[in-house]
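Reopening this ticket.

The earlier resolution said the output was attached, but the attachment link was broken on my side. Pasting everything inline this time so it's all in one place.
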Amino acid sequence: MGTLFGFAVGYLLGARAGNEGYEELVRSAKAILDSEEFQSFLGILRDHARHGLRQLSDWVGGDGEALSVDDLLREARARLQR
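Inline output:
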């Protein structure tokens, strides 16, 4: 859904600004994605997701065994329905 939204916004901005404006928009987006700050932000998000999944695994009774994401979510849903 986000990709579709991004495409629509890019298309509209590009159509209004012409080919040069669109290319500038693409260059700017690439510069942001390649920036050290954005890469750091992604690293923080990954770490946060790992921590959250570890907590979820502990909550559903992960006793050191590796659970697949599907098993983890299935067990969490079952506990929430109790």
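Reporter confirms the inline version is readable. The two ends are 32 Å apart (CA to CA). The chain has three helices and no strands.
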